[in-house]
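fyi for ur records
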Amino acid sequence: MRRSGRPEALINCGTLYYEDGNLEKASEYFRRALELDAENALAHFNLGSVLEEVGEVEAARQHLRQAVRLDPAYPDAHYNLAFVCEKLDADAEAQQHWEAYVRLDPAGPWCNYARQRLASSKTARSAGTT
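which gave:
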């Protein structure tokens, strides 16, 4: 049985550690939150972000995919997943998530970057087919 508020408190603690640069401790708190609530999109997003920063890119992708699966309208999860997919040369998957981010948050702080990534992937595809 899920205890109300507890996963959120663990996520908050993890976020404080993350902001302080202690990625190991942040990861620990996000994992503990997921032990209590495996369906918490924010915990998956935060853990995925930490894992990407420490170079565990495939594990990051799995957690970010979970965040998107649990909350398909979570623009930042799509953005980070697109970024991670590019690192893994999963360009088709990255494009889907860049498009989702732009659609969900067209005036967002990273929208121009997402549009640039989409434009460069279209340019690369066009160059490859001529």
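The chain has seven helices and no strands. thats all i got for now
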